[in-house]
Design brief:
Blueprint: E1 4-8, H1 13-25, E2 30-34, E3 50-54, E4 58-63, E5 69-72, E6 84-90, E7 97-103, H2 120-123, E8 128-134, H3 153-161
Parallel strand pairs: 1-2, 7-8
Antiparallel strand pairs: 2-4, 3-4, 5-6, 6-7
């Protein structure tokens, strides 16, 4: 089993470090982070327990020594490269799991969402996909307590059309 945790860091250096430390405590193989801080005085963030693959708004941290075979799938993002990292991971003799780390916020100019640029047929092709991230969408389908649906139609359609299941346990993913 591959252990994955996800956290929106709200551009906080401290929360980014705390999320990586939580990954160590929980023995997470992969930590998916969104809304990362800018570098402080040119000093980047790193962590001794993780190899971090960075984009502007998403980072995927892979635990060193986890035994995972990792293959980044850059061809799936079709222009959403700052907001999506798709990575195929597997442990020896196990099936590939595709981890898609997404920060999905509607572009105010074009009206398009980064997730709309994904090649959805390939996202779920020949693997078990796990979507983790900040979808900036609210629906009773994944949060029964939420009263007003917002920006959820795309995600509800993507779930239905691609045979995906919601695995969210109801806990907030943002501070």
């Amino acid at each position: 089993m591959i252990r994955v945790i996800q956290h929106n860091c709200a551009r906080s250096y401290e929360w980014t470090i705390a999320a990586l430390e939580m990954g160590v405590e929980r023995r997470a193989d992969i930590v998916c982070l969104q809304e990362l801080p800018t570098e402080r005085g040119g000093i980047g963030i790193s962590h001794s327990a993780y190899e971090i693959r960075k984009r502007k708004r998403v980072w995927t941290a892979i635990r060193r020594g986890s035994g995972l075979v990792v293959d980044e799938q850059t061809d799936l993002s079709r222009g959403a490269n700052e907001d999506v990292i798709a990575t195929d991971v597997r442990k020896r003799r196990e099936r590939i799991t595709r981890i898609v780390n997404i920060y999905d916020q509607q572009n105010t100019h074009s009206g398009q969402r980064p997730a709309q640029k994904l090649n959805w047929q390939r996202v779920s092709w020949q693997c078990s996909p796990v979507l983790a991230g900040d979808f900036n969408a609210h629906s009773k389908r994944w949060d029964p307590k939420w009263q007003v649906q917002r920006d959820a139609a795309f995600w509800e359609d993507a779930i239905d059309e691609n045979g995906l299941e919601i695995g969210h346990d109801g806990r907030p993913t943002h501070h």
